[in-house]
Specification:
275 residues, alpha/beta, five-stranded parallel β-sheet, four-stranded mixed β-sheet, 11 helices, disordered C terminus
């Protein structure tokens, strides 16, 4: 499930995102600090979403006007208004909104709205596999967390994600996963077992083609996953805003990528051409 959330007050936005995460722990929640930011993302990506939680009283484009534009761009998306005022209720339901929540937002209220959406959530997504690298490394398939039978299998997949499709040799993987251990036949046998375990896990999810194996090289097909790291590198502002300085925090070998992300994050945005 993909959920959008917009509020011009950062504290209120953080609270709303937290309540949505509590109500739907596996949902992909995209926060926006303004109506304009959400519209730019939607106009650029035309990405589907299941629900959009909109504050109403915002500077520039109000939540009501924002909802009207969203319905033009994505008519199948559910709109849920979140506000401290009741006088907008008539306007909201003239727009066929799915719900109307009064602040302060509670987990129960969010859960009830998501349980009773006007239009059912869509299961049709370009990528079934979603990879979260900002913070700890986690992997989801159809919104549900993937269970890896071995922690090193998960770490192997994390390293291949970090490589972004570049092939890794057996020797390289051993130096990363067994830091300080010599490259012996026994360790190579363990690595082959991890590769088999990873491919088995993905095959059970009907996503086996993500892994590319060529002689002594193994890689992933980056086009087959939805990854916040990849979207960050592509300039997706939602991913850029989601980066809070942490990347695959559970793995020390990821530190060089953290440094690269910080350098990219500090770049001055290019000035837009005048119309």
């Amino acid at each position: 499930m993909r959920v959008l959330a917009v509020d011009d007050e950062q504290l209120m936005l953080d609270m709303l995102v937290d309540r949505i995460h509590q109500a739907r722990p596996q949902a992909e929640v995209l926060p926006f600090g303004s109506s304009r930011a959400l519209l730019e993302w939607l106009e650029d990506t035309r990405a589907p979403f299941d629900a959009a939680f909109l504050d109403i009283e915002m500077p520039g484009i109000s939540g009501i006007a924002l909802a009207q534009r969203i319905k033009e761009l994505s008519p199948d998306g559910n709109i849920i208004f979140v506000t401290g005022f009741s006088q907008y209720m008539a306007e909201a339901f003239q727009l066929h909104a799915s719900g109307y929540i009064m602040k302060p937002v509670s987990v129960k209220a969010v859960e009830e709205e998501l349980d009773n959406l006007r239009r059912p959530p869509s299961q049709d997504r370009t990528h079934r596999l979603r990879v979260q690298t900002f913070g700890n490394f986690e992997v989801f398939c159809d919104g549900k967390p993937i269970h890896f039978s071995r922690s090193r299998t998960k770490e192997l997949f994390a390293y291949l994600i970090d490589r972004r499709g570049a092939g890794s040799t057996m020797g390289e993987l051993i130096s990363v996963l067994w830091e300080g251990r010599p490259d012996t036949g026994s360790v190579r046998s363990q690595l082959r077992s991890l590769i088999t375990d990873l491919r088995t896990t993905l095959r059970q999810l009907e996503e086996k083609s993500i892994i590319i194996k060529r002689r002594d090289l193994i890689a992933i097909d980056p086009e087959r996953v939805d990854c916040d790291y990849y979207r960050f590198l592509a300039g997706d502002m939602t991913a850029v805003n989601a980066f809070r300085g942490e990347y695959m925090s559970n793995y020390s070998w990821a530190e060089p990528t953290v440094g690269a992300l910080h350098r990219l994050d500090e770049r001055e945005p290019e000035p837009k051409e005048k119309q």
